[in-house]
Design a protein that fits this description.
7 helices; mainly alpha; single chain
């Protein structure tokens, strides 16, 4: 495929976000102790969903590339363009996003660090994906696809105090 240029669209980025979220659900089902892997997959999901939202609002590939893997910058830009802000979203973006940007989930190191539990990151990703999906494709499309992989949380993520 030499010479072929593939362009990302808001829809293709959103589809990728959904697939990464679905992959996180699948890993969580089989390996619930694999926090680093689940968090990396969810980080990709959040990044792609935010980039889909921004691209829909006119951001070009170069600008999105310049924003990189920085969830906080992507989130702040998206909020400026109309994405819903909540303190909870902002806090989870700050905590999870820093480790994602630093590639800690892809290349774990020995030591202690604070992070957000995977169930909370999955809820964060879900909220952003649903909002972006609705923005791009409409409420009717969301209702028709409500149980699609990535649009629904298809795994039970353990929470503190839960008995498995």
């Amino acid at each position: 495929m030499s010479g072929t240029v593939l362009f990302q669209t808001p829809d293709s980025l959103l589809d990728g976000a959904c697939m990464y979220a679905a992959a996180a659900d699948a890993v969580n089902d089989r390996h619930p102790e694999a926090w680093f892997v689940v968090n990396q997959l969810l980080g990709m999901s959040i990044e792609l969903a935010l980039k889909a939202y921004l691209q829909r609002r006119g951001y070009d590939d170069r600008t999105l590339r310049d924003l990189g893997h920085n969830h906080k910058k992507l989130f702040d830009e998206a909020v400026e363009k109309g994405l819903r802000y909540t303190d909870g979203r902002n806090f989870r973006i700050l905590m999870h996003g820093q480790h994602y940007k630093d590639r800690l989930f892809a290349y774990p190191t020995i030591g202690e660090f604070g992070t957000i539990m995977p169930w909370s990151v999955r809820e964060l990703a879900h909220g952003i994906i649903v909002e972006v999906f609705t923005d791009l494709r409409g409420q009717d499309a969301l209702e028709a696809s409500r149980n699609a992989p990535g649009l629904s949380i298809a795994s039970t993520y353990s929470r503190p105090g839960m008995v498995s």
